[in-house]
Amino acid sequence: MAEEKRTRSPRKKPDRIPRQEMPVRSAQDRIQDFEEVALGFDAVLAQKEAQRCLQCPKQPCVDGCPVSVDITGFIHLITEGDFIGAARKIKETNLLPAVCGRVCPQEEQCEQVCVVGKIDEPVAIGRLERFVADYERNQGTVVLPEVAPPSGKKVAIIGSGPAGITVSYELLQAGHKVTIFEALHELGGVLIYGIPEFRLPKKIVAAEIDTIKKLGAEIKLNMLIGKTRTIDQLMNDDGFDAVFIGTGSGLPMFLKLPGENLNGISSANEFLTRVNLMKAYREEYATPVKVGKKVAVFGAGNVAMDAARSAKRVGGDDTEVSIVYRRARDQMPAREEEIHHAEEEGIIFNLLTNPIRFIGDENNHVKEIECVKMELGEPDDSGRRRPITIKGSEHLVEADTVIVALGTMPRKFIAETSPDIKTSDWGTFLVDEESGETSKKGVFAGGDIVTGSATVIQAMGAGRVAAKAIKEYLAEN
Ligand SMILES: Cc1cc2nc3c(=O)[nH]c(=O)nc-3n(C[C@H](O)[C@H](O)[C@H](O)COP(=O)(O)OP(=O)(O)OC[C@H]3O[C@@H](n4cnc5c(N)ncnc54)[C@H](O)[C@@H]3O)c2cc1C
């Protein structure tokens, strides 16, 4: 009997389905062009991944999403094979699922609190979101939401990034007339001019934003509010009942080092805008961007990774691209996936290194950077270990192209012409957190202009908060 007990096999737990990997193009293949790196799930992978969701009644993932997408609801529809229904479920609160499925840092939001993640890898919510959004678009079955009868109220939306687009979407559905004022010649904000094509194809952004046009938004491109027209003029002369400011945080910061104005040195913002918006990587376009054979990118956030990977593609196989960063790998603020992709693509990481001056050639073109080596000391205010210069470690780094990706601040055009809108020392707009209302009556703001550089989904979340408050404001005024 005892023998029999010993030989009986233990009760086997049902096999857990592992998190499904998303196919990606090989590094060697993808650095030859700007086509998308990740290929997305197919229906089989999506349904397998969807089965991993526990359908938790408490839905912590929904709380982890700044726009409260019904995550368990859409994943359940995937398990039933209703991919279109799943896409529409997401669109109840998020107009841009194909965008968010590609660029949201899900590992810090919905996936971070996924219950499956406590015992295994979390459900791949972002990949599933991307799959259903692509499926709906490719099937040509995108439908417009219902729109309330015209309210007779007019709202000006300044800036067409994710914040402005979200507010527009919500207000149009409520029957309000919306006019979007955009400084550039295309809608989309950073989705169009910042994030590279190989992470976020522009035709996908345009397709999702197209809904706004179909819902009747009036679009005014090449209009720099604060210069072409002021907020007061919009409200007093042009008859807008309310204004939403979603102008982002697009003013690049520099290192402020000797030689920084040499030729060959630019901000990541300028470099990426030229590559993305002006298609400078395509030979047939008249505004080419030049990349030499030794590129140094300063910074270690997502923007730095985007700039480095774009430079590699523009420069070609014999261009060496380095990320130069004063801290160590663990302190790099970029998403792990972006760092990993950059490493795979041959980007060199020159860590614990800080520049002290740029040196030019006889044509005032950068040729070298004098740098020092750093070591990590005690944590600073940000909680990260403070980099300390190692004495006597000065050395020269060869570079004929330098891209500075140190962060951005809000531009001042609106603040300077609307002094009654209160701003912080950083130039961000101060708003009531519950409503997004600024210190000026009827003027609301949200997204990077309020938080400083953050994320797409946070900007969209702020847009939803402001849209709700604007609807209430319009009902009372
Ligand atoms: C290179 C790069 C990569 C990024 N990668 C990611 C990522 O992977 N995931 C993620 O979640 N976030 C990412 N971000 C951050 C994210 O894109 C932003 O947080 C988000 O776009 C902010 O949205 P927004 O609507 O506030 O502003 P923006 O997207 O900046 O849009 C503001 C718009 O307002 C317009 N504008 C500015 N001033 C005026 C004016 N005076 N009059 C009229 N129009 C004006 C601008 O031209 C722009 O179109 C990235 C940012 C950059 C720069």
Helix-strand layout with pairing:
Elements: H1 2-7, H2 27-30, H3 43-50, H4 60-63, H5 71-79, H6 83-91, H7 97-103, H8 125-139, E1 154-158, H9 162-173, E2 177-181, H10 190-193, H11 202-214, E3 218-220, H12 231-237, E4 242-245, E5 251-252, E6 265-267, H13 268-276, E7 294-298, H14 302-315, E8 320-324, H15 336-344, E9 348-350, E10 353-360, E11 366-379, E12 385-389, E13 395-398, E14 401-404, E15 408-409, H16 413-417, E16 443-445, H17 448-451, H18 456-476
Parallel strand pairs: 1-2, 1-4, 2-3, 4-16, 6-14, 7-8, 7-14, 8-9
Antiparallel strand pairs: 5-15, 10-11, 11-12, 11-13
Helix pairs in contact: 3-5, 3-8, 5-6, 5-8, 6-8, 7-8, 9-18, 13-14
The site of flavin-adenine dinucleotide has 42 residues, from helix 9, helix 14, helix 16, helix 17 and helix 18.
